[in-house]
Amino acid sequence: MMQPGSTDGAWRGKDETVKRTSLESADCPIARALDAIGDWWSLLIIRDALRGMRRFGEFQKSLGLAKNILAARLRTLMGHGILELAPASDGSAYQEYVLTEKGRGLFPVLVALRQWGDTHYFEPGEVTTELVDRKRGRPVRTLELRAEDGRLLGPADTELRRLGGRPTG
Predict the structure, then answer these.
(1) Would you say residue 10 lies in a domain?
(2) Which helix (H) or strand (E) holds 10?
(3) Which residues belong to any copy of the HTH hxlR-type domain (predicted)?
(4) Directed axis angle between helix 67-79 and helix 56-63, to 10°?
(5) pLDDT value at position 133?
(6) Once rounded to an integer, what is the mean pLDDT over residues 2-21?
(7) Residue 164, domain member (yes or no)
(8) 123, 117 Cβ separation under 8 angstroms
(9) Is residue 132 part of a domain?
(10) Residue 74 is part of a domain; what is its CATH number?
(11) For residues 13 and 7, what is the distance between their CA atoms, to the nearest angstrom?
(12) pLDDT tens digits, residue range 69-114?
């Protein structure tokens, strides 16, 4: 089974090493976004930051991640402008990791991933959690892609266009 753990951009499995290729120059926005996020640990750090966690120890306790791996992921997220360091909110000498506007912009991405995971990886009736509107206490609706006129859109209803109007593959 493949496991994260290298700070040098490699994934090491039992019998293999796979080097990560940088996607920062790719012409696909998804590829560039994944280059910034990196791996599942980073998404889980962002998830926890969206829940209000701010300190290294909080992230480590939540994730059970080795300190060196967590530190590397936090540095990467800061390097991409997703997290920033700020003085501790309690006035202590510590610093906290705070989501930037770019980082907070990942909220709908994580909600979509959560809803997809809930639908496809939990059995009906299996204990999970529910995302609710804090003000009303009601479940959040499933995210949907809609056209300007309100029509529900699926993959067959959309296409990518390069600037200038030419479709792209």
Answers:
(1) no
(2) strand 10-12
(3) 28-125
(4) 120
(5) 97
(6) 48
(7) no
(8) no
(9) yes
(10) 1.10.10.10
(11) 14
(12) 999 999 999 999 999 999 998 999 999 999 999 999 999 999 999 9
| Residue 11: strand, helix, or coil | strand
44 close to 53: Cβ distance less than 8 angstroms: no
Helix (H) or strand (E) holding 118: helix 107-121
Q: Which amino acid makes up residue 150?
A: G
Amino acid (one-letter) located at 74: L
Residues of the domain holding 96 = 25-157
**Residues in Cβ contact with 86 at an 8 Å cutoff, skipping those fewer than 6 apart:** 95, 96, 97, 98
Residue 60: phi, psi to the nearest 5? Answer: -65, -45
* Spacing of C-alpha 66 from chain mean position: 19
Q: Which two tokens stand for residue 20?
A: 């990560």
Query: Encoding tokens for residue 22?
Result: 């940088």
How many domains, the chain?
1
CA–CA distance, 68 with 63 (Å, rounded to integer): 13
Q: Cα(83)–Cα(112) distance, rounded to whole angstroms?
A: 21
Contact 74, 97 (CB under 8 A): yes
Residue from 60, 53, 100 nearest 80 by CA: 100
Closest of 104, 35, 108 to residue 76, by C-alpha: 35
